[in-house]
Amino acid sequence: MEAIEILLDCCKRKKMQVTNRGNLQMRGLKESPPHHVYQKLQEVGLASRQLQIDHLRNIMLNPTAGIDREELVDTRVWLKQIIAYMEDNPEKIATLPAKFSIGLDGGGIVGIGSRYNEIQFTATKTGEGILFHLELGGRKTFIPTNIFIAPEYLITCLDSLIEIYRQYVDSRGEGYRLRDLIQEWGVSEYWRRVTALNHFPYYTLQTNSSPSVSCDNIAAYDYKPFPKRDRINPPPGDKPHPEDTDKPHPGDADKPYPGDADKPHPGDADKPYPGDTDKPYPYNLNSFHLGLHRQKQEGLYYLGVALPLGYITRQQWQGLRELVEKSGCGEIRLTPWQSIILPNLSDDTIGETIDTLEKLGLSPRENHSRGNVVACVGKAGCKAGITESETHARMAIEYLGEGKQGKQTPNIHFSGCSKCCAQSTPRQLSFIGCWVWRDGKTVEGYKIYRGDSLIAEVTVEKAISLLPELLKEVNG
After folding, report:
1. Positive or negative torsion for Cα 465, 471, 474, 475
2. Along the chain (476 residues), what's the average pLDDT of each consecutive run of 10 residues?
3. In angstroms, rounded to a whole number, what is the distance separating the alpha carbons of residues 261 and 391?
4. Are residues 125 and 208 in the same domain?
5. Helices and strands (DSSP H and E) totals, the chain
6. What's the order of all strands across the beta sheet hosting 412-415?
């Protein structure tokens, strides 16, 4: 944790952000940190020995690995093996896309099934014992394979998956990802090449969560073709491209919100939520790990603490480091829900830990408001962003913190454009940035969804003003 403080000081940053991949991020850097800072990060395992592949160490574990009361395996064992594999074979992954990612889920209470890593292994109890179920992610969904790998062959399988993926990317050029491979080849051809490269045993088994697919007919679940987004969003005042999917419904831009949250926006009833709506989505996925929970170790607990949009200041980080040292919990864990977990707390340290968090401005008592609002950085830090999504999300957090929302705290999502980077799956309320017509020109606006149903398409100002009314409707 001290190494992170050194990095913050070196980069002259007063805050950083926990991302929805469970990483730490600082924006707006004009130059790379000096070599001695990298060396410090390497010493504590926060940077790769091979700096040319450091950005590709995108390995996500369930954040309660090793302490989850219901986990089938402790995935940290394989994490070390995967990191060693990558650092010993940098040439195998150096040309992979920057968004290449691997997920390891131990099958416990706190899973990562809502985070679509390109290659994901989930521990599953089967008649053959505990095996890893292989799923392939892309376009904000998982493709079922019903392929199961014995733990002792996981690295061999991963090596083959990566090598065939690398060969595909090298032959096609920059910008191609696993989703493109699957769209072009199909899952069955990909798997055929994988098993031809390295021979290892595997199982094809039925699961309750995926349709009936065998290795012989996996192609039935290949991607449907989808268009690439090549156009740049028009600046305010310009007319949108006639085929732009963010184009407002003609003639209704000046129409006020109808007040009926169950009624879809006129003309758009068949337009789906731009994220993943293929299956029912439990809205509390971002907050179910928050608060105090028993660990599998007798007499120990972990405490999940929400951060406002994932941000944490240098002063708070230093306070957390001192708390970790004093409480003896030994570590702080980052989650892909932009929050933190303090593990290994005892009955004697829980009270003091919560008091310290209160003083740091990270009170667990505010989990209900902080943990239920997510947002991307918006146009302030992304060229694709249309709206100031983070600013508007902070308004929602402030409103929720006042306790005016009613009997429950709904889940709210703000994204600056239709890419839905902050949250790929629907929430109780979603605000998706778009362009809307006003007085013969385009201005910033939001498409508002309740679940996966579009209920309004209004200007930013109107959308924010509707928030109290929408919260009341969600609460019934």
Report:
1. negative
2. 90 92 88 87 86 84 96 95 92 90 94 88 95 88 89 97 96 91 93 95 76 32 32 37 38 38 37 47 59 95 94 96 90 93 95 94 83 90 93 89 64 91 82 92 94 92 91 73
3. 24
4. yes
5. 12, 18
6. 373-375, 412-415, 429-438, 441-450, 453-459
Question: What pLDDT is recorded for position 298?
Answer: 96
Phi, psi torsion values for 202, nearest 5 degrees: -155, 170
pTM > 0.85 = no
Q: Are residues 255 and 293 in the same domain?
A: no
| pLDDT of amino acid 20 | 87
- Both tokens of 98, joined, read 């920057």
Q: Please tell me the distance from the alpha carbon of residue 374 to that of residue 416, in angstroms, as a whole number.
A: 12
Instruction: Write down the pLDDT at residue 251.
Output: 38
Q: Which amino acid makes up residue 403?
A: G
Which residues, 6 or more positions from 93, have their beta carbon under 8 angstroms from its beta carbon? 53, 56, 86, 100, 162, 166
Q: SS3 for 352?
A: helix
Question: DSSP secondary-structure letter at 153?
Answer: G
The CATH code of the domain that includes 111 is 3.30.413.10
Same domain, 150 and 240: no
Measured distance CA(363)–CA(441) in Å, rounded: 44
Cβ neighbourhood burial of 351 (10 Å; 0-12, 13-18, 19+): exposed
C-alpha angle 354-360-365 in degrees, rounded to nearest 5: 45
Give the domain-ending residue among 203, 221, 239: 221
What's the pLDDT score for residue 368? 72
Environment class of 460 (CB within 10 Å of its CB; exposed 0-12, middle 13-18, buried 19+): buried
Indicate the pairing of strand 333-334 with strand 373-375: unpaired
Cα dihedral sign, 393-399-404-409:
positive
3-class secondary structure for 250-285? CCCCCCCCCCCCCCCCCCCCCCCCCCCCCCCCCHHH
The 3-state DSSP composition of the chain as helix, strand, coil percent (nearest 5) reads 35, 20, 45
Greatest C-alpha distance within the chain:
66
Same domain, 91 and 129: yes
Last residue of a domain, one of 304, 336, 367: 367
Are residues 180 and 55 both part of a single domain? Answer: yes
Whether 362 and 376 share a structural domain: no
Q: What is the pLDDT of residue 407?
A: 55
84 falls within a domain:
yes
Which residues have a Cβ under 8 Å from the Cβ of 65 and sit 6 or more positions away? 71, 74, 75, 76, 79, 106, 108
User: 100, 58 in Cβ contact below 8 A?
Assistant: yes
Q: Give yes or no for a contact between 307 and 290, defined as CB atoms under 8 angstroms apart.
A: no
